[in-house]
Each structure stands twice: as C-alpha cells, then as structure tokens.
C-alpha cells in the first residue's frame, strides 16, 4: 500500500468529487482502524496512509499540486498533507461521527448535573396473551413499577443535593484511553459526563436519584396483535426532574395454539383425511377461528394439498382487511388390513386395469436406459 497513489489508497478515480473522497475515506478508515485490528501493525500503517491521502485530496490546493507533481511536489508546501491543520479539524469531526459513543465526545459541553436525567423517561413492560386474546382483542389491566425523581435530593442522588467534583474524571466529564498511536475519550461512567458526583449519598434514594413507585393502567388490546408488537400508552412512563413524564410501551408475547398456526394474518390448520376420502372425494366440517367451515375434497385430493378460505383469517391490526384461513390435508392410511379388506382392495386395483400399473412402464424404461450404460 506504501507504493500506491493517494487515489489507489482510497480506491477512487482521479475525477472523484469531495463527497466521493470523503465517503471512500470513511470506508477505508473503518476497515483499518486500530480498534478493529488490535495488534495489527500493517493495518495501523495502512490507517496512517489513509489519513495522509485524505488530508491531501480533501484540500483543493494540495490536491492540485499532487495531481501535477505527485508527493514530491507537496514537499515544498511544508511537509505536504501532514501539515494541514484544517485537514486535521475535518478528520476530528469525522471521527466523532464514526466512533461516537466511544470517542470524540470531547467537543461537547457538559450538561448541568441538576438538569440531567439518570434514567430514560420512556419505559417498557412485557405482556403475555393467549392465541385467542391476540386475534380477537381484549382489555387488560397492567400493574408496573415506574421511576420518580427523589424529592429530597432533587434527583441528584446527593444528600441535600450537594455535589462535589467527580474523583474518576476529576471534573472533566470524560475519561481517556490510548489505543495504538491514538487517544480516545468516552463519557465518565461514574458521573455520566457531568463532572460532578454526590459528596454523600441521599438517605431517601440511597444515591440513585429516584424512587420506585407502583402504577396501573387498563389498556385495550386491538384485534390482530402479533408476537413482538408494541403498544404505546402516552404519559404513563417514568417521571423526570422537571415533572415531565415519558410513555409506557407494552411489548406483547403471544402463546402458540395447539391446532392453529399463525403466519402474519393467515391461519393454518392440518386436517387428517382417510385415504378413501381423498380418493373418492368428500365434504368435511372443519373448525376455524370463528366457528365451522365446509371443506369440499375433490376426487383424488393429494397429500399436503391446501384449501384456502379467503377473508377467514385474522383482522389486520392496522385495519387493512383480514387474512386467509388455510386447511392443509394430511392423508392417513391404515396400518393393518384384514382378509376382507385386502381382497376388496385387490379387486379395486384390478378394476383399474393398466391404469393401476403405470409404475411398470416407468420402471421398464428406466431399466432399458441402465442397460445401455453397460454396452
């Protein structure tokens, strides 16, 4: 990679615009970043080359010189791409975007610790429903615990609300770590970036900044709710320092049914059919999610054949019609035959004549083909 041109390093063409150059750099920097390649000296070297290439090609004047005279031409500009302070500023902002949450947070201003929430105002509870409750809807009472700001400490977790400088980050709100040749920062895990920590824990909340309270609400579960769906109950979540309250989200888990199988808004059922019914055709009364349906088997119904009843499935939870109800045939055969049954079946087979011996013609042609293999 050392001998490649800056364009080859970033895998772009010479006529690439600024947007393309920037996008290519992001891709290559992520690929060779030391955090993703710990201990890999070659990746670290390639990462430096990507930085060098981007700093040059993202600067119009340096790019123009490089296009004419190559790297040698940049030497007369005070060290070439490495000397561009504007290039480093741009790289810094890009790293904040690319690795936000791990590093790059040093540019942000620390929030006032009395304003920061120690928890999310929105919250989630899980609810379990039977198959029947999910497809037809129901009303459910929910009891849950939610967080409320501790009044004695105003949500700070400190006795009488008194805070002192955080010992972990020494008031900076960030802790720093070194990875290879680069130093990264991340939000202090002790003070959550405020730079302050309780001098003494609050007696009421034991330093948590909040208390747990019990709540309840009755919700109307709509028809057609499915496993994994969520329902939002506005204004029933956790309560913040300024009295604002988040939302309660209810996530549903639906129990499977013994007979009916749900696929989206469609419902499947397996219907056992004796082989004589499949051969001669029959009319069966079968169960559905809303009562009974009439299943008409045609002569020669095949095993696993499906019969669809349009609009007899589950109501769409968003009100977009109904799914279908699908009955799948499972042909069953006797495991034992008495003498009379065996004789009757033999007579039935003979009555079909050559039609009942189609397999013989197929086997004969296969045997003839095999004989030709050994000629």
Write the CATH homologous superfamily of the largest domain: Heat shock protein DnaJ, cysteine-rich domain
Q: Which sheet architecture does the biggest sheet show?
A: 4 strands, mixed
Q: CATH topology of the largest domain, what is it called? A: Chaperone, DNAj Protein, Chain A
Going across the major beta sheet, what is the strand order? 10-11-15-14
State the distance separating the first and last CA atoms.
61 Å
The number of E-state strands comes to 15
SSE string: HHHHHEHEEEEEEEEEEHEEEEHH
Instruction: Please work out how many helical segments DSSP would assign.
Output: 9
**Proportion in helices:** 25-40%
Structural class: alpha+beta
Q: Please state the overall shape, judged from the principal axes of the Cα atoms.
A: flat
Q: Can you name the CATH architecture of the largest domain?
A: Ribbon
Number of separate structural domains: 4
Percent in strands: 25-35%
The radius of gyration over CA amounts to: 36 Å
The residue ranges in which pLDDT falls below 50 over 5 or more consecutive positions are 78-89, 100-109
SSE order and pairing:
Elements: H1 6-10, H2 18-32, H3 41-57, H4 60-74, H5 85-98, E1 123-129, H6 131-136, E2 138-149, E3 163-165, E4 174-179, E5 182-187, E6 196-198, E7 210-221, E8 230-233, E9 248-254, E10 261-263, E11 266-274, H7 275-280, E12 282-288, E13 291-297, E14 306-309, E15 325-332, H8 339-351, H9 358-373
Helix pairs in contact: 2-3
């Amino acid at each position: 990679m050392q001998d490649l041109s800056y364009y080859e390093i970033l895998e772009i063409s010479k006529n690439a615009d600024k947007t393309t150059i920037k996008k290519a750099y992001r891709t290559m920097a992520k690929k060779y970043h030391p955090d993703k390649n710990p201990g890999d000296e070659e990746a670290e070297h390639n990462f430096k080359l990507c930085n060098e290439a981007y700093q040059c090609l993202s600067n119009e004047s340096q790019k123009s010189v490089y296009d004419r005279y190559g790297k040698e031409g940049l030497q007369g500009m005070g060290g070439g791409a490495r000397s561009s302070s504007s290039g480093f500023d741009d790289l810094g902002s890009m790293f904040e975007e690319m690795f936000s949450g791990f590093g790059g947070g040093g540019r942000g201003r620390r929030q006032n610790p009395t304003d920061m929430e120690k928890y999310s105002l929105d919250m989630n509870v899980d609810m379990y429903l039977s198959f029947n409750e999910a497809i037809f809807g129901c009303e459910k009472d929910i009891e849950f615990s939610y967080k409320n700001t501790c009044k004695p400490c105003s949500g700070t977790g400190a006795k009488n609300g008194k805070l002192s400088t955080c010992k972990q980050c020494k008031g900076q709100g960030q802790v720093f770590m070194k990875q290879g040749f680069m130093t990264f920062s991340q939000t202090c895990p002790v003070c959550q970036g405020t730079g302050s920590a309780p001098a003494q824990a609050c007696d009421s909340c034991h330093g948590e900044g909040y208390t747990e309270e019990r709540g309840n609400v009755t919700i109307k579960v709509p028809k057609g709710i499915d496993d994994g769906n969520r329902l939002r109950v506005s204004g029933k979540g956790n309560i913040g320092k300024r009295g604002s309250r988040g939302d309660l989200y209810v996530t549903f888990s639906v129990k499977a049914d013994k007979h009916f199988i749900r696929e989206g808004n469609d419902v499947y059922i397996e219907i056992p059919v004796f082989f004589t019914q499949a051969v001669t055709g029959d009319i069966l009364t079968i169960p559905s999610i809303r009562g009974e349906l009439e299943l008409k088997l045609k002569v020669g119904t095949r095993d696993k054949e499906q019969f669809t009843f349009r609009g007899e499935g589950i109501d769409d939870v968003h009100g977009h019609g109904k799914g279908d109800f699908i009955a799948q045939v499972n042909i069953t055969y006797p495991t034992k035959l008495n003498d009379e049954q065996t004789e009757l079946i033999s007579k039935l087979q003979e009555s079909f004549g050559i039609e009942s011996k189609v397999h013989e013609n197929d086997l004969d042609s296969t045997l003839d083909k095999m004989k030709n293999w050994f000629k």
